[in-house]
Amino acid sequence: MAKKLRDYSIFNRFNFERKPVGVKFLITKPEGIKRRGKGLNFCEMFKEAQTSEPFYVGEEDFECIEPMILGMKDPEPILVSGYVGERENIYSEARANRKIYQYLPKMIKGSVRYVAFAPIDQLTFDPDVLIITANLDQARTILRALGYSSGENWSSQGTPVAACTWLYLYPVLSGKLNFTITGLSFGMQSLKVLPEGLFLISIPWQLLPEIMENLQDMDWNLPMKGGTRDENRERVQKLFKQFRQELAKDRNQ
Q: Which of 4-39 are b and which e, b meaning 16 or more Cβ less than 10 Å from the residue's Cβ?
């Protein structure tokens, strides 16, 4: 029985310049979606999906470390040895670069054969992770929505290389929202994937319903966003005074 698709219309309120993209990891080919013809790096594919029809890719369509982190093939010794990071002067020695392959998020070997991508307004599947490209104000609202009802804190995980694994896999495997800022990753920077200074926010399927519900419930335009320094201080002082009066009244009853 096909699952009912979510209503993603709450994201329309952001007026994103670049569409959010849903990503799904699959063992079989997705129905009704065409395979992408040209090869791209994994970190380029969500950008491609922002302006294209939904598509899927397989092992032959990747051009970097993706088959290794997706569990499609064994790693190349030249890669996991850390030799490349040393020669590119990203790390001081191969040993430093080699260390990251001990903790980079990876799919279990053989568990993923295809990856599907679709812009949010053309989703025909329930995504494993939703990738959002946001400016500072939009990112602030989304990160606030993460903890609006639960008090959950946000954090960022990443490395100077292998940005794709933190963007796509870490949120799915950990169940935690992750984010980075364009320009921090050398790979994405060298490929000119996006202008620098944008937030890339990855929301895993485990958190998507709660964040969407919080976006519906919370006030997006808080008083402190528009007031001056003095106005905000005065407003907070009045709030504390009012609360102290309420507590005093409660104690005297």
A: eebebeebeebebebbbbbbbbbeeebeebeebeee
